[in-house]
Predict the structure of Methionine--tRNA ligase.
Amino acid sequence: MSSSGRHILTAPAWPYANGPRHIGHVSGFALPCDMFSRYQRMAGNQVLMVSGTDEHGTPIQVQADKEGVSARELADRYNRVIAGDLHALGMSYDLFTRTSTRNHYAVVQEIFKGLYDNGYIFPQTTMGAISPSTGRTLPDRYIEGTCPICSYDGARGDQCDNCGNQLDPIDLINPRSRINGETPKFVETEHFMLDLPAFTDALGSYLRSKQGEWRPNVLKFSLNLLDDLQPRAISRDLDWGVPIPLDGWRDQPNKRLYVWFDAVIGYFSASVEWARRSGDPDAWRAWWQDPEALSYYFMGKDNIVFHSEIWPAMLLGYNGLGDRGGEPGSLGGLNVPNEVVSSEFLTMEGRKFSSSRQVVIYVRDFLERYDVDALRYYIAVAGPENQDTDFTWQHFLERNNNELVAQWGNLVNRSVTMAAKEFGTIPEPGELGDADRALLERSRGAFAAVGAELNRSRFKNAVTEAFDVVRDANAYLSQQEPWKIKDDPARKGSVLHVALQVVDDAKTLLTPFLPKSSGKVHEMLGGQGDWSGMPELREVDEDGVSYPVITGQYDDEARWEHRPIKPGTPLSKPTPLFTKLDPKIVDEELARLEQA
Ligand SMILES: [Zn+2]
């Protein structure tokens, strides 16, 4: 980590530990955050990127019951799978941990207490659906029955898909559990509620201050939610989760904090864990308490409400800044998010990603067959940044072959190969002409332009501008035709020097998107040391259980700046940067989808 610059917390959403990740997931929360974080590190800022697996809640308990394992065992399994997926994508987490750690429990309980002491959490007796056989809360969507309005027989406890009306599970005729078919029991049960209406004013000023900074759709959606904030239950009848840290509740085996309440606190608890692991337990404060520090949260649009409304409300409440006032909790005031960066949805060949219907391509399977940078490039240039977007194998093939291979791979290959063959080292430039100087200026100027786009999380614009430099360099080579220069080695050296300088610049400009192949270009040009750091998987232990975390040292070479290449640096004959794909992969992949 560099010693200057601003402290920037980058927070990609926590994947739910119920299965492997598919590319629809990682196009929203993961890859955009990594591109942003890598850029900010290169620009000299002190980035802390933390996340982990979200492991509590009824869906995991239900799936575990179905498979005859404990919730903990299921979470252990998918924590490992997901950590493997994200590591393979090159996600440069400072710490990727999980929500089932002692540290997370302690931090969640501290935030609960702060909110409770300030009066923003209150108990309420409600009628809740319970599974008679397990005593656990049956969430609304796990109950089905006949719609009281249209008599449709497959209505869910939260809504009827036939007539579209919102429902309350207690209104269903012949309600039954979707888990095991039994009739739910409606009983009086006491739960804690988060008093969201007490934050209407504070959230309103917070959100309105983001006008012009956030993506307009995210801000509009968030402002609309303010019109109807309701108290929200933060506990459940369940034995898998964080216990409620109050006398009379702590030891109740079937009362736990609701999973969404604990999961959003993960950003903070993971920062605390990172600080402890780094040897300075207070190191998190620079990202959470310094008013100059910045924080950016990345997610799919189905998660906006938790990041733009509920998490800021929890932080404001802990700080004592809602309608009821109060004092900051024992850790001191905590920073609210500076920006909530939400992506839209990715579909797959015109259909919604669905693990159950096998309309899916898992990260692991994808990376077995294709380069990681091919996926990263596709998501940057054609991902669901501002609108729902369809992934098709045909588009993927075209982006890979026509852009990565034919433009960037070709530029690197032909300039390095020719210079290595003719000179063996980076050639000395002679006197430069207008065309030479114009391309060099163009390339240097791109740092400010591409950097400004990356700083606003406009990945599509950023990668497109970086690629324009690559296209211009290819046009320059086609025009100068250095391969035809026979009797003027000085001129040939100048053209190749200019081309290699632009290759070096473009490698830097493309590093946030394509860290792995940029590292290869760095080596080809005679660079020493790691160019852009890659994450490592490390086994850690807690209570006798071993599990992986992702971490890494990212204080590497890459800086967001033009660096003059040094004549005389030895060059090696390049190996291809990317793999050209056979058009038949399109039919093969479509056949895999059909079979499934
Ligand atoms: Zn209905």
